[in-house]
Amino acid sequence: PQATRDLVTPFEYDPFGREAKKYLPYADPSANGSYKAGALTPGSGIMAFYNPSGSEAQLPTGIPRIPSPFAETRFEPSPLNRVEEQGAPGSDWQIGQGHTVRQGYYSNSDASLSEGNGRWAKQYGVSIDASGNRSLKDEGSYGQNQLYVSET
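Structure tokens predicted for Type IV secretion protein Rhs:
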């Protein structure tokens, strides 16, 4: 059986207090329950656990070698702190590698669909006759900049 270990999840914040990197948890051999000041120090802590120097693709513990054991988040440069791009743990899933989730924030347009604008929004209403029957009623389209559009 394995010796007792501390399960550690490092946290790192950017200058604006946002968690721009979210780290995977790791098992620390100290097993004393104390604060781990070296958790993010290169060559020790989380990097020694997931990416020890000279290691193969599969570590002897059965854990895969992960050179980037964190998910990075890029925020838009505004006070809204909205996410522009989100990565995941692993080198292939980092920002700049093309395998991330990207967010776009826009408002709708009143241009017709034939102009190639995918942010045009149709507006519908419901009419109820004297018998209580409901029918869908075309009320045109929403005017420009009346709706927020979030693309993922």
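The mean pLDDT is 89.
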